[in-house]
Structures are given as structure tokens and as C-alpha cells.
């Protein structure tokens, strides 16, 4: 008998109550879909997705701003590949020759050195996982006195979004949280201790099927015994207090600000902005970029999916007008998007 079968049997033995478990990480979304975990759980355990995909929670106005920059030949846009097919109306970043896919933020500095006649703008998207890397890139640009490089900062941090969900969890729809392993590797387990005040458990998890199944088992045990705790189930990677060097780097370069989240709205203290010391590398400040309040595409329910108010299959566009080759919303195009997972794995 496999280890997964053993864990499944443990879950079947202890699970009596109906429980809804939310995973707060896009990589978990894909891992759960790919490994078929939902299909081996008892029917009283439901897995739902939260706002854990950074591209998906980026509001339409910020996507539109990036698109406008891409249309200007004096700019060269450096971005991770996930952004290429995120739609703004009927347009995509991949349609522009001055948009370059990079695999490390530091690659954008190479572009700046190789193209001194261009303004290189890096699209800074991500949670606490990528923020230290981009902070380091900004510091490196400053050290090398690169004047044709800046970042359009769209970074968000996870706890305020979780708080919004839990404050509205009055019906106890969410009974446990699978906490993000990558974010926790930077921040540490204690970063999520605030969750305990909502009398709900959270478990930091790895991404293999056995990791996720053992995490679900822990959450079920807590729920069945009416106890709650915040537990680290990814100890080979995640520590109690996180990566001090990465956290110090992030805190030196970035400050906290209010931020708009697709499907949620404005969340206080949930975004990052570049501090005054490094403000010359803030593209929004440098080029007077105004982020417009643009409504999501008509019929797109990405926002509701991100808040676990509905599932992709409840959206009338899913699999019809909205597919990976013709995405209407970001949840279908991102490699961590819930709609993409449901479509790819026929959930």
C-alpha cells in the first residue's frame, strides 16, 4: 500500500463532518488538479481555491497600464511569461515586439545595459516569494547607476487578503487553510499566526501529493476535534521566522500600501510600493503612470472564482468563449490559475 493510500485511509477514518478547505497558493491549485487529489477524498471534504495566483489577482487597470507601455516604442517591457497572454480587451502583451520574456529579474538589467537608448520597465508581479528578488534587482540597478531601468510595482502580500476572507467567513464555509509553501519559505510559519484569532487552522504545505494529502489530514484532525493551530508541514524548506536576508531586502526597498485586488477590491495594507530611497526606479512615478479603474470583461467570473464564491464551471464563458488559446480572464491563462487547472485536467 502506498503512503498516499495510508493517508487517504486515515482521512476516511477520522473525517465525519463536512469541511471546506481552501488552498491559498496557485501552485497548490495546479498540484491538486494534476494529481487528482479531489477524486480520492471523501465527499464531505471539499477543496476550494483562494486568491493565491498573483497574475489572477492583478486588476484590469494594472494590466491595461502595462499594455499601454508596451505600445510605446521608447520602452522595452521585461516580464515573466505568465503575463504574455493576459488579455486587456482583445489585446495581449505577446503582440508587441518590444516585450521580452525573462526568467530572472536580473535579466532585465542585462537588457538595460544592452539597450541604453531604451527605457527598460520590468513588470513587478508576485507575492512575498518574488518581492525580495525584485528588491535585490532594484538595489543592483542603483549600485550600477543604471538610469534606464525601472519597475512597475504591482506586488501584493498575502495576509491582508486572507484576513478579508476570514472576516467574511461568518458561515464557517472555510474550515481550514492550506498555506502557501513558497511564500512561507520567505516569511516563515509565524507570519500566519494571525489566523488563529479566527479560530481556524492553517497548515503550511509542500507541493507533492503526499505533502498535500498529509496537510489535508492534519486540517481534518483539527476540525474534527474543534481545535485550531498554525502548523508547518514543510519543515525541509520553511522555518519559524523565514529568510531574514530576503525579508530585510524586501523591507529596505519596499513599503506597504493599499492595493486593488481583482475580485476583492481595495485591501488596506496589501500591496508594496518602492520606498523614496529607490523612487527613481519606480516606473509609475518616473513616467506619471495612472492606473485606471477598469471593469473586468463582461461575463468573466474570475473575481468570484478567486474568492471561492463560484467554480470555473459555473461561468458561462468557461470552455466556450474562454479557453487557454483564447482567454477572457487571467484565471484561464496563468499557469497557476484555477480556471486553467479545471480546463487542463477536466475537473
Summarize the structure.
36% of the residues lie in helices and 17% in strands.
Q: How does this structure look, described?
A:
This protein has 347 residues and is an alpha/beta fold. The chain has helices at 3-14, 26-35, 37-40, 54-57, 60-70, 106-114, 131-143, 158-167, 181-187, 209-224, 244-253, 283-286, 302-306, 330-333, 338-344; strands at 19-23, 45-49, 75-79, 99-101, 119-124, 149-153, 176-179, 201-205, 230-233, 254-261, 265-274. It folds into two domains: 1-299, Rossmann fold (3-Layer(aba) Sandwich); 302-344, no CATH class. Helices cover 36% and strands 17% of the residues. Strands 2-1-7-8-9 form a five-stranded parallel sheet. A four-stranded parallel sheet has the order 4-3-5-6, sandwiched between helices. Helix 1 (3-14) packs parallel to helix 10. The longest helix is centred in the middle third of the chain and has 16 residues, at 209-224. The two termini are 26 Å apart.
Radius of gyration: 20 Å
What share of residues are in beta strands? 15-25%
Low-confidence stretches: none
Q: Please provide the count of β strands.
A: 11
Give the SSE string: HEHHEHHEEHEHEHEHEHEHEEHHHH
What is the CATH first-level class name of the largest domain?
Answer: Alpha Beta
